[in-house]
Amino acid sequence: MQSKEINKKEDKKTAPVQVRALRKSFGKQQVLKGIDLEVSRGETLSVLGRSGTGKSVLLKLIIGLHKPDSGSICVNGEDVTKLPLKELNEVRKKIGFLFQQAALYDSLTVQENVAFPLRRHFKMSDAERNKRVRELLASVGMDKDANKLPSEVSGGMQKRVGLARALALEPEILLFDEPTAGLDPITAAEIDELILQLQKQRHLASVVVTHDIHGARMVSDRLALLRDGEILIEGTFEDLQNSRDPFVKQFLDAS
Amino acid sequence: MILHSALLAFLVATAYSATSSVGRAGIFYNSEDLVVKFFEWFGNLGIFCGRLIWAAFTPPYEFREFFRQFDELGSKSLPLVALAGAATGVVLTLSTRDSLIRFGAKALLPTVVVFSIIKESGPIITALIVSGRAAAGIGSELGAMKVSEQIDAMEASAVNPYRFLAATRVLACMLMLPLLTLVSDFFGILMGWVANTAYEPISLRLFIHDGFKDVAFSDLLPPTLKTVVFGLLMGVIACFQGMNASGGTQGVERAATSSVVLASLFIILADVLLVHLILVFFS
């Protein structure tokens, strides 16, 4: 009995994100039809699929921005689908989220954006907070543009700032929603490099939702391909390459 | 009261149809859809109010953001309110003066101007002017934040947007509106005196003395404080419309337009009710 409990705790330690039989509909449209996923500490899972297959919805379900119709989502052992808001917010502090368009607060400067979660969740002096913000911005190469507004920096730079903001609360899990969408190939490769670098330094559990198969191959340990609300195939890039499924082949060839 | 409720329902439905995408498709072709959406809107507004109340009365309190909103609302609305109050004072004096001369009651002019301004025109003009500026501003700002996922980003970083964005703005509207009403009253009475003096010189002191000699606190306080309700309606509707925006820039435009239309409409309808209540309790 005791050893079972220890095993259970170990499982939780090794898999900070566990998704079981997840279903989600919007009106009559069923977007996710029973998704099972697991992401371990230090592992990056990329979720691929065509537009409108529910990839972004999956990320928003993991962080509790949407409620599923059924199924469970355990983050560090806590089922976020059943948590009241106060406890859900405690779980959210352990998750960093990089939005598709970065979603920076456009009335705040770059450094104020990064300071926003720190100001709300940590009691620290202004000097301490500024130091921490500078460190975070330096880690994504944006320390020279700290006083600019989001509208004054490029799309790639906004993504970097979004990443710095996502890292502000020292998360254990990172969720990336199309981190390279809308960027030129060089900037996209820089963002992928940054993700990889962060992964090595911080040993986080990451889920990357993307269309970019090359980027996904670069940053991921495993890939999952969504089709019609279900996971069609899950494995390494080589597993996907070796698949005989016509859709998998078509998806890889088209990328 | 039944008539009032029916009028409210009709006007809100009309305003909703004018500001929603259903309305654009044609009110008669989509009447069933419109009815469903109308009740859905009230239901969602009720849920929004519940979350807002919970967020407003539970810690942590966002004092810093509240003061920023309070300052912004006050400083940006002040010139408009002063100008609108002054214009109301001039128009009221000129039109009333003409009527009073006809009835041989010219001496009552200061009293009529002061009573009209402090009891009705000051509060309602201020509320409508601020609604035009602030409700559109809040609706479009929160609408833009919603469609660009900034509100989702706030929630994802464990910050309650109902507390940080909505409660602070609603409270700022509620507390700023009575102060702006006093400003509007002041400029209205002052410019009423100026307009009167242009035709028939009278000292300001005498104008004020004559105007306020029959004014009791119950004449000034309830009408000024009823603007707290106007601020509440304006803030809640603008935040609700903004935070429920969808559909890109068109959604933001719809949120801004519907915020102004619905807030102005609710203010006028609430005024009908509040004037009744004030007459019952303070006459």
Structure description:
The complex is a heterodimer of chains A (255) and B (283). By secondary structure, chain A is α/β, with parallel strands linked by helices. Helix content of chain A is 42%, strand content 24%. Chain A has 10 helices and 10 strands. The longest helix of chain A has 18 residues. By secondary structure, chain B is mainly alpha-helical. Chain B is 87% helix and 0% strand. Chain B is built from 10 helices and no strands. The two termini of chain B are 20 Å apart.
Q: Quick one: how many beta strands of chain B?
A: 0
Number of helical segments with 4 or more residues of chain B: 10
Q: Please identify which CATH superfamily of chain A we are dealing with.
A: P-loop containing nucleotide triphosphate hydrolases
Q: State the helicity of chain A in percent bands.
A: 40-55%
Major beta sheet of chain A, specifics?
6 strands, mixed
Number of domains of chain A: 1
Query: Order of helices and strands of chain B, N to C?
Result: HHHHHHHHHH
Please report the total strand number of chain A as a whole number.
10
Query: What is the H-and-E element order of chain A?
Result: HEEEHEEHEHHHEHEHEEHH
CATH architecture of chain A: 3-Layer(aba) Sandwich
Oligomer: heterodimer
Just give the CATH class of chain A: Alpha Beta
Number of spatially distinct domains of chain B: 1
Strands of the widest sheet of chain A, in order across it, are: 6-7-8-3-9-10
Roughly how much helix do the residues of chain B carry, as a percent range? Answer: over 70%
Tally of alpha and pi helices of chain A: 10
Gyration radius of chain B, rounded? 21 Å
Task: Give the end-to-end Cα distance of chain A, rounded to a whole number of Å.
Answer: 49 Å
What is the average of the pLDDT values of chain A? Answer: 90
Strand residues, percent of chain B = under 5%
